[in-house]
Amino acid sequence: MNNTLRLFVSIIVCELAGIVGSVFTASAIPNWYATLVSPALNPPGWLFGPVWTMLYALMGIALFLVWKKGLAHMGVRKALSVFGLQLFLNAIWSIVFFGLQSPAWAFANIVALWVAIAWTMILFYRLSRPAMWLLAPYIAWVSFAGYLNYCIWMLNS
Q1: 128 phi and psi, to 5 degrees?
Q2: What kind of fold does domain 3-155 have according to CATH?
Q3: Structural domain spans, the chain
Q4: Alpha-carbon distance 125 to 129, whole Å?
Q5: Is the pTM of this model over 0.70?
Q6: Are 66 and 76 spatial neighbours (Cβ–Cβ below 8 Å)?
């Protein structure tokens, strides 16, 4: 597979994870989420879509930078496996929070997600420092999302 196609596939795979989550998010926002007490630092709703779209694109580029090192490399296979784990945890967060309407379980999920992102960053650092740095905005946003999730859980218990 040439690098252009590999880059395209990497970005699409990450954006698809966001689309999976958005299926559960869209219907829950007006029917459930809007009824919750939100923390003072809750950003406006319109901000989430563009931020996540950009983060998924950055994740895809990071994925590409590591993938292009070659699957024959054991470190690449391990890094891609952990990347897949964090992408899975990312996708199911929306299902748990919005679909199941469970801020408590979603917070547990986001803690596991944060750990998986940090682990991915460590593995990516060994293979491609730019790939690791491309994940820095992602872990920062997930940290903020963790704060929001925790506050929503506490405010609405």
Answers
A1: -160, 105
A2: Ferritin (1.20.1260)
A3: 3-155
A4: 5
A5: yes
A6: yes
